[in-house]
Amino acid sequence: MKLLTPDIYVESVLHLDLQKLKDRKIKGLIIDIDNTLVAWDIKYASEKTKEWLLNLKKEGFEVCLVSNNTEDRVVKFNEELKLPAIHRATKPRRGAFKKAMKTMKTNINNTAVIGDQIFTDVLGGNRMGLCTVLVVPIESKEFWWTTFVRRVERHVLRVVLKEHGGEK
Ligand SMILES: [Mg+2]
Asked: Which chain residues have CB less than 5 Å from ligand 1, an ion?
């Protein structure tokens, strides 16, 4: 169970306390793309997320995007950001994490993995002894919201039909 438990759990990357990472002597961040930085079916990160990503460098962190998705997806997403990035990472396998640390010139003691999936990001990071950060998947938040909005819409429609249904 310990292998599946993240060290830090936050609602989104934007809620991540960077000072907390600095206190843990973290210098390198391995960051997942799909549902961590952006919903899986959206090409680019939001302005807010882009700003957050680019600010990490100023805060003194090295960053490497590590995604299990295709080269096309990762290259497109990274077009403007121009961050070091690894596609088809086959997380939770160790290869891509090692490659990322080599790129960032960091090691297992000062690198954190940030992602939305317990069985790829968290498991992969924990079994190597890296600090792991789990975020709520962006997709499911939108899904939850969509479901909620549809429910409200249906309710409003029922009320409207009840009140005005007879007029037609
Ligand atoms: Mg993901």
From this structure: 32, 34-36, 116
